[in-house]
Amino acid sequence: MEQLLRVMNFNVSRDGIGAGEHQTLESPFGHAHPERLFAWAGATASWPMRTDPGGSRGLDDYFTRDFAHNIGAEIMGRNKFGPQRGPWLDHDWLGWWGEEPPFHTPVFVMTHHIRPAITLSDTTFHFVDDDPGTVLERARKAAQGKDVRLGGGVSTIRQFLDADLVDTLHVAVAPVELGSGIRLWKTPDELLDRFHLEIVPSASGVAHHLFWRK
């Protein structure tokens, strides 16, 4: 069975921006307030960080619930792991994800500065300095027959799109505009040379953009 590379539940603003400027330890999304992009997912019954009962059902909840389905590994850029640039200065700092990361799979962190792997609960972060094709090959092997999720951020997704390695994308477009930041696209039509696109509006105001290979 073919192992797909899937972008899942990736959030952008109406003007195509997936992260703000000036990322710091305290502000992982820079000047962009993440709740403006993620509100639809956080309101669902299946949101993994929910601490109270309840939450919405329906389309948004389906996508939130499906996030881990048949996923055996994740690929992410370094800035999804943490805000540091350049050589790692503090190996004791173990990333933004806490002692129980939500991935539950091997995670391949793309960086030009290698460091030893880190295991937190059932997630192991591997730090790799390779081209997208090589990283994907390693992730597929680690996924043991399951699909690989391409987690972002924006620049990492663009790298894999430019290398023509992405099979499917689900991009949730929030009903807000950020004006500046790191842009996934100017318009989703940029991907229509390679992908079919169906846009499914949600009652939450988000428009779910579903892309699959032609």
UniProtKB/TrEMBL annotation:
One family name in Pfam for this protein: RibD_C
Record InterPro entries: DHFR-like_dom_sf, RibDG_C, Riboflavin_Biosynth_HTPR
Molecular function GO labels: 5-amino-6-(5-phosphoribosylamino)uracil reductase activity
Source domain of life: Bacteria
GO annotation terms (biological process): riboflavin biosynthetic process
Residue ranges constituting the Bacterial bifunctional deaminase-reductase C-terminal domain according to the UniProt record: 68-184
Protein name: Deaminase
